[in-house]
Amino acid sequence: MSTIRPAVISRRSLLLAGAVGLPAAVALTTRAGGQEERYTVAELAGVIATTRSEPLFVGLAHLILQPGAHTEAVNTAGPRIIALTSGRLIVGTAGAGTFFRNPDNDPTGFPQPAPPPHPVAPGEAVVLEPGDRVALEPGAVREIRNDGPTPAVYLDAALFPPGPDPVPAAFTTVDGISFQLLVGATLDPVPAGALQFALSRAEVSPDGAWPAVARDGPAVVYVESGSLALIPTAGAVRFSRAAAPTAYSLPAPLRDVPLGTTVRLTAGAAALLPTGSAVDARNERRVPARLLLVEVRTLPAGPATPAAR
């Protein structure tokens, strides 16, 4: 991923930046006992979509497509965000979206500032290089394929009404597709109207703390590396431990965390933070805690267009 210079900014400014779908990096500073504590978040991509007040499934998966592998008709009835880690990926579309390019992929070879998001037209084939992301409206993903010489590794975040069958935890096909669900949860209720669906990376510095504020929309959190000591202070927070303390290990089912109880989330663990919930979370180790966040954010009242920004 590209390096973005952090800036100290208020949480409200962070939410407004996310509401227009702009990738940004911010550093939030809290004070406890007179000491500064750091929490940095870089938004990877966001898309605005209209939802009804009904249960929705939110999921974050890790996928590997071997050279020549492809999927067809993989759209969902909700927004999708695809972030490529390595290899090369082509996403065929049947709807609109936004492409976020990694500036390190500039063909001139010179360092470049982060380019502005690029609109994606229905029917366009978006070519992703490492660090690129694409956010697409509901039903816009038509095909995903790897025509490169090496495996394509990517994250796939989705929001959609749950079906009769549960989303599988992991599978591998004979065609060379490996799927692993990092975290998944059913959100109920979900605010009706225009919402922003966003994928971000966050880092809590050693001895740093998570901002202890009530959420204005639900989110799922996945620990990529390091660990967090988490204490719910409001809302019905849930968590799952990983099968092994390593990234991309299979998740266990989500279970409730009583208010005031401390749970420690290590690599591969996850948490569900519903609307109105708040947590006191701290990194007690001497290495950073790196997280992935999938958020459903409420937008300010007023006219809104259900389109990617």
The number of helical elements comes to: 1
First-last Cα distance = 21 Å
Summed over residues and divided by their number, the pLDDT gives a mean of: 80
Contiguous runs where pLDDT drops below 50 for at least 5 residues: 1-26, 30-35, 303-309
What is the 3D shape?
globular
Helicity level = under 10%
CATH-defined superfamily of the largest domain: Jelly Rolls
Order of the strands making up the biggest sheet = 1-2-15-23-16-21-18-19
The overall strand count is 23
SS content category: mainly beta
Main sheet record: 8 strands, antiparallel
Indicate the proportion of strand residues: over 45%
Number of domains: 2
Describe this structure in words.
The chain is globular. Mean pLDDT is 80; it is low at 1-26, 30-35 and 303-309. The longest helix is centred in the first third of the chain and has 9 residues, at 11-19. The protein is built from one helix and 23 strands. It has one helix at 11-19, and strands at 25-32, 35-51, 56-65, 70-72, 80-86, 89-93, 97-100, 118-120, 125-128, 133-136, 141-145, 152-160, 170-172, 177-187, 193-204, 219-225, 227-234, 238-240, 255-256, 263-266, 270-273, 278-282, 289-298. By secondary structure, the chain is an all-beta fold. The protein starts with 10 loop residues before the first helix and ends in an 11-residue tail after the last strand. It has two domains: 11-49 and 192-298, Jelly Rolls (Sandwich); 56-187, Jelly Rolls (Sandwich), CATH 2.60.120. The strands form four sheets. It has an eight-stranded antiparallel beta sheet with strand order 1-2-15-23-16-21-18-19.
